[in-house]
Every structure is written in structure tokens, then in C-alpha cells.
């Protein structure tokens, strides 16, 4: 039976809960807002299936194998605008749906919780586009994916590396009709903090928030901003990583899941078929796509992944790159983020303080934050932001996006 002795040893993938035939494991929120398995021991028959499904207990040893690397950009302007980076995910997912398959991904539910669901139509893929910077709730996705796989449907499952390894461990066998896509994932913040942020922003708007775009490209791909929308898709708020308190919380590692500070899934040789992540160095890697609309780095790990890439390449402009060049500067792929020394205090204050008080205390708007914002905006207008970013990257590494 699963027993969590140290919270850093549970990534919340829910594979154990999905594997339990007796349904005695319920994923339950802790005081920090993260879900962990809670077992009804009176129903447990000690079969051990939950432990067999856990990707942390059964951590795979990393072994090198042949890989292929690309930088890609979707040819469709609307898809590209809505995607986080270059729209690689949509290219793969659209192909799967055209083959009669199903695609699993992360989206918002009607209460703005981030949840995993599946789509069977091309139009539905829009809700998966754009990264949601919070832990997604897997719900019943693993069991549903298994049902589709057993019925012979092509299944594409996208998620964080721990979710993909959780799915594979839960399935306990390889399926030829499964294609898995993981993102390079720095960490996931607590859903409780996102709720507090939404509550704070909702108080400022009469119409209410119906959608969030964590990586809005209105001011260009390289200047990441968070955008809030009302039910008519009218923008209510737009602020960058310099001034938006939620993005500042995310990039300061102050409220991430404990497992993210000791991530068991940070590696180059992965269990997924395809890994996707941001290409901010597009000017060096793929100058034809250097239009500030976004580009995705793609690392292919399997024959299945190579076959799919051949099928989707018509939707993309792309270049193949030597792997040392592609992987240079991708620290988040292999290194866990450091825990912010104020994490404990922040999460305790989150229970005591009103939403605005909390964000004002830890992420106040100061002269320096405003200065940073206007440097970004003005340098963006004059097309020199990428050079400032490059200098920043050389000096401090790839911290901000
Ligand atoms: C929590 C998180 C952290 C990330 N950290 C980094 C990083 O440090 N460095 C980096 O280069 N890239 C990071 N990425 C990846 C990056 O943001 C883009 O997802 C990637 O560039 C692919 O973009 P795209 O345009 O091809 O796909 P998009 O169209 O943006 O597709 C997004 C895909 O991500 C999935 N997804 C979105 N939100 C979640 C979520 N909360 N949980 C699980 N799956 C989700 C969707 O299902 C979909 O498959 C992160 C993504 C997430 C979700
Ligand atoms: S040991 Fe078996 S019955 Fe008990 S919680 Fe785990 S999977 Fe369920
Ligand atoms: S890591 Fe996943 S499978 Fe392991 S205990 Fe946590 S939720 Fe369960
Ligand atoms: S950092 Fe690791 S543990 Fe955290 S969500 Fe990403 S893959 Fe999972």
C-alpha cells in the first residue's frame, strides 16, 4: 500500500489512485493546496497495485539512446498566436484527431481549475493550447486513456514529465497506439495560490474572469505576459512577468509542489515520445522563424515520435539541429528549481492573509518593478528587447521568460 513519508516523494500524478481496483485511494488536497493519495485502509486488500503504478517508487534509470532535435513554428497564424511557443503540440494533436484518435491535455473547467480532459475534435484543441502554470488535476484521465488504448484508438497524451511517467507506469505495458508528449517543466505552483490570485483579480472587474492566458503574445513572444478575459473574450488585464504577482510568484519558486524541488523526472533521455519546450534563442537557431511569434524546441525520443514528426512536418516550418546546440541553455530540462527561502512563510501567510494583502506583501509594485516593465515595453517597441534579453541570459542564465 502507498505510504507518503516525505511529500517530496509524491508528484501527485494519481497513477496509484487509478490503479487501485478497490477504489480506496482518493487524491485529497493538503493545507498547501496540493493533492496527495489518501487511502481508505478498511477497503484495502494489500494487493500492491498502487505501488507498482508509482513512477517515483519505480523510478527508471536514465539510459542514452538516439534522439532527433528540431526547432519548429506552426504555419497557421491563429494557432501560433494561441500557443505558448511554436504550436508543436497542436500540429501533433491535429494529426492524431484526423486519424480518428483522442487527445488528452490540460484545460480550465468552468471554475477555472486546471484539469486534464480529452478532445476528439480539432476545434476542441484550442482549450489545450497555452501553458497553464499550475498543477493540473488528472481526474479520471489515466483510466479513460487505458480504455481508449484497449479499444484500439490512437491516443495522444500530453502533460508534465511526471504525468507521462505516471501514465506509463499505470499502463504497465507499451501500446503501439499511444503517443506521449511531455513539456520541459520548471515546476508547478499550488492551485490554492492561483485561486487566491483569481479571487483578487475578480474583485477588480465587474464582468468576472472567464479565461486566463499565462503566456499571451500581444506584446510579442519574448515578453511573456498574463492576460485575463471576460466571457466575450475581451481582455480585462495584461501584465508581464515584471509586475504581475502570479507570474512573479511562479518564477520565484515560492509556492511549487515539494516534489518539484527534487524532481525525479528532470532528464534528457525520457520515457515520452516527444518533448517540447520554448525556443527563445530562435535568432541563433532558426533565423527564418525569428518574428517574435514563438518557436518550439522539439526532442524526439522514439521511432513512434519520428514517424509522427514526418506526418506533421507539412504543418510547420522547421529546422533540424545538432543536439548539443538544441539542448544548450535548457537547464529546466535537467535541473530542479531551488526552493525560495520564503516558501514556508508565504504558504502559511496564504492561509492568514486576504488575497491582495498576500500578493502586496511578497510582490509589491515598486519603482524597480515599474522601471523593469517600461524597459521591456520600450525595448520591445524598438525591437531591441531580444538583445537586452540575451545580455541578461549571459549574465544570469535562463530565469525569466
Ligand atoms: C507547468 C509548466 C512549466 C513549464 N516550464 C517550462 C520551462 O521551464 N522552460 C521551457 O522552455 N518550457 C516550459 N514549459 C513548456 C512551454 O510552456 C510550452 O508548453 C512549450 O513551449 C510547448 O509549446 P507549444 O506552443 O508547442 O504548445 P502549446 O499549444 O502551448 O500546448 C501546451 C501543452 O501543454 C499542456 N499543458 C498546459 N498546461 C499544463 C499543465 N498545467 N500541466 C500539464 N500539461 C499542461 C497542454 O495539454 C498542451 O499539451 C512549461 C509548461 C508547463 C505546463
Ligand atoms: S494495496 Fe491494492 S487495494 Fe490497497 S490501496 Fe493499493 S491498490 Fe488499493
Ligand atoms: S507519485 Fe503518483 S503514483 Fe506515486 S504516490 Fe504520488 S500520486 Fe501516487
Ligand atoms: S517539476 Fe517534476 S515533479 Fe514538478 S510538475 Fe514538473 S515534472 Fe512533475
Sum up the structure in keywords.
401 residues; alpha+beta; Alpha-Beta Plaits; 8-stranded mixed β-sheet; 16 helices; 13 strands; binds flavin-adenine dinucleotide; binds iron/sulfur cluster
If you had to describe this structure to a student in words, what would you say it looks like?
With 401 residues, this protein is an alpha+beta fold. It has three domains: 46 residues, 2-Layer Sandwich (Alpha-Beta Plaits); 200 residues, no CATH class; 126 residues, no CATH class. Helices cover 34% and strands 18% of the residues. An eight-stranded mixed β-sheet has the order 5-4-6-7-11-12-3-13, with helices on both faces. It is globular. The two termini are 41 Å apart. The model has no long low-confidence stretch (mean pLDDT 94). Bound molecules: flavin-adenine dinucleotide (FAD) and iron/sulfur cluster (SF4) (3 copies). The site of one iron/sulfur cluster has 14 residues, from helix 2.
